[in-house]
Amino acid sequence: LQMFYSFRLLWTQALQHVQTGNLREAKSILKQFQDLENSNLPLGLQPYFVNELRFEIALANEDSNQLEEMLTSYRSKAQVGSKLRCMFNYREARSATALKDNASLEAAARQISDQECVMNSKTRGILLAHARLWLAELALDGGENDNARSLLEAFRQDWSTADEDLGLSQLAGSLEERL
After folding, report:
1. Please, which pLDDT band fits residue 45 given cuts at 50, 70 and 90?
2. Dist CA 107 CA 164 (whole Å)
3. How buried is residue 65: exposed, middle or buried, by Cβ count under 10 Å (0-12/13-18/19+)?
4. Any idea of the CA torsion for 38, 81, 131, 88, to the nearest 10 degrees?
5. Cα 58 from chain centroid?
6. H helices of 142-179, where?
7. Beta strands in 19-142 (DSSP E)
8. Cα–Cα distance measured from residue 70 to residue 155, given in angstroms and rounded to the nearest whole number
9. Using an 8 Å Cβ cutoff, are 113 and 129 in contact?
10. What pLDDT, on the 0 to 100 scale, is given for residue 41?
């Protein structure tokens, strides 16, 4: 258990390095994760942490080839019957955002917003929030203020008690200022 929490702490540090643009340190931590034997971690989580950190680094690098390769791999694991898991659409939307591919962003966000994918009840709220804000920003960029307003109202209704210091709340506020 202690090793798991040490690993989680290192994971958090790696994400902070990615977010601050210190990709050299993030890659160094990724190497540590890759060198660790999966059997040393509870629940065999080593591949998960390695893949997620590789994805975050690829996003930060706007590495379209690596992102496409990873999305292809994720897609095969995300299929549930005829639908995809919404977490796949979320990853797809994040990739599209990094690559400034508005058409792919809209398609992925709409799948989540319209709940046309398989959604875990634990992640439902955060996925819908992201999707609505992505779609609202695209609507504003396209001059569709009424559509953007509707999406922002839906966000505010679901997140009525959200702390205004949260990144999503701040993004919603900046989008509302554009209306």
Report:
1. confident
2. 28
3. exposed
4. 30
5. 13
6. 145-158, 167-178
7. 79-80, 83-84
8. 30
9. no
10. 64
